[in-house]
């Protein structure tokens, strides 16, 4: 399976996310992509953390009859350190 690099990705609907890294599901050991939405989305505030199965993160979706990546890598990981500082645990 293709490698997920930390950095900024564009969702096919246009929003930007910052991938922090890969986590493992505690029961199935399935790889999950951990990412941050810097802007508010789906009624949630800015800088919310999200996870998605790696397989789903990497899949293509069909838009207007054309296959496009669900998430497209656009920038290296220099933003990840900034995002990690904003996250409150």
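Sequence proposed for the structure above (89 residues):
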């Amino acid at each position: 399976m293709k490698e997920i690099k930390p950095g900024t990705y564009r969702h096919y609907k246009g929003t930007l996310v910052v991938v922090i890294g890969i986590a493992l599901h505690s029961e199935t050991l399935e790889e999950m992509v951990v990412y941050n939405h810097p802007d508010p989305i789906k009624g949630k505030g800015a800088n919310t953390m999200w996870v998605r199965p790696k397989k789903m993160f990497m899949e293509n979706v069909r838009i207007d009859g054309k296959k496009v990546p669900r998430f497209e890598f656009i920038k290296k990981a220099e933003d990840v350190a900034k995002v990690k500082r904003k996250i409150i645990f």
